[in-house]
Amino acid sequence: MDIIVGIFKESYMLLNKMSVFLLFGFLFAGVLHIFMKEGVIAKHLGTKSLSSVIKASLFGIPLPLCSCGVVPAALSIRKDGASKGAVLSFLISTPVTGVDSIFASYALLGWFFTAYRVFAAFVTAVFAGIVSNILSKEKTPRINQSKKTDCKTCCGHSNNGEDHKHTLAEKIKKVFTYAFGDLIGDIGWWLLLGIVIGGAISYFVPASFVERYLGSPVMSMLIMILVGIPMYVCDIGSLPIVMALMMKGMNPGAGFVFLVTGPATNSVALTLIAKELGLKTAVIFVGSVIVCSFGLGLAFDKIWNLMDYNAVFETMHHQSQILPAWLEIFASSVIIIAVAYNFFLKKMSGKHIHAIARND
User: Fold this and answer.
1) Radius of gyration over alpha carbons of the chain, in Å?
2) Are the beta carbons of 214 and 245 closer than 8 angstroms?
3) Residues 246-281: pLDDT tens digits?
4) Of 58, 105, 66, 90, nearest to 262 (Cα)?
């Protein structure tokens, strides 16, 4: 019973930490889906080419989405025609960096660490996209050039094949119905499953484990990979952690590895990727992050030592901004209610369909 209660508490805390960013991610996905012109995603990101991978990587770098908030947006562009390679590139480059994170990273870790982090996010994203394009078998999505579709499902209009202009109010309404209806209905239970898995990991792996086994640079990098892959930590939230550990003597390469693996992956994202894009794609995703973060971490250590950059940290101070507890609880409640509502809505729809079938 103590274990169950402990996992529940950790899962609840994890949901609270993620919920605000998840809501933002779902809303962003809705905006992309409704306001982006049809065929744009498929045109630029739909082909299994290097250019689509590079475009997705560059597109993701400035966006302020965390590793969980980016998943709804990535699944949305996938449904709109993006290739798996482009989706993986977007999934990696987006949560590792962001406009807000770039400024915070510069303030805490300096220009070199920040520039190398952005460079690493781009390289890792491109690498994952290329590997996915080589190993994944998928047909090039057909670009829908026609906008003459029936609008009953979104605004109540029946255009009968004629062009119909949606008002701004109709588009905004559809953003919310898509984000918290269609999208969260598809991935909601998988999202909660991933949160429980993350809570179990947080419960069974003590925080002191990270600080206790940071011996050699290579060993510390491997440990940070093992810790960072399943753990949920946003790009900004990871900065104070790395700053504190580096001030205690952890080598910068290990800190860099955590800044890549922590924000890029977590148990929730991996669960959703495996479910929506396939197990092979999830393996490519994780493998690319591990290989690139470790290799770039080793290179980062050597460059850091050559530049003798350790002296910079003697005068650095760190700050951490925490969201209000009431906002986190409110966001968590919205997500739970939305998942439950869509679950019971589908269940009732299923019963209605079965009832009709029986009557027939």
Assistant:
1) 22
2) yes
3) 766 678 888 899 889 988 887 778 888 888 888 999
4) 66
Alpha carbon distances (Å) from 327 to 23, 127, 130, 180, 320:
11, 37, 39, 18, 17
Residue with tokens 């011996």: 215
Q: Convert the pLDDT of each residue in 304-329 to its tens digit.
A: 888 766 655 544 444 444 578 889 89
- Give the angle 330-333-334 at the CA atoms, nearest 5°: 90
Please identify which residue in the block is written with the tokens 């930590």. Answer: 233
Give the list of residues 6+ apart from residue 16 with CB closer than 8 angstroms, or none: 325, 328, 329, 331, 332
Whole-prediction pTM? 0.68
* AA identity, residue 14: L
Q: Are 42 and 144 in contact (CB under 8 A)?
A: yes
Give alpha helix (H) positions in 148-278: 168-177, 184-204, 208-212, 217-228, 235-247, 252-264, 267-277
40-182-266 Cα angle (round to 5)? 85
State how far Cα 212 lies from the chain centre. 29
**Rounded distance between C-alpha atoms, residue 312 and residue 155, angstroms:** 57
| Backbone angles phi and psi of 157, in degrees to 5 | -85, 145
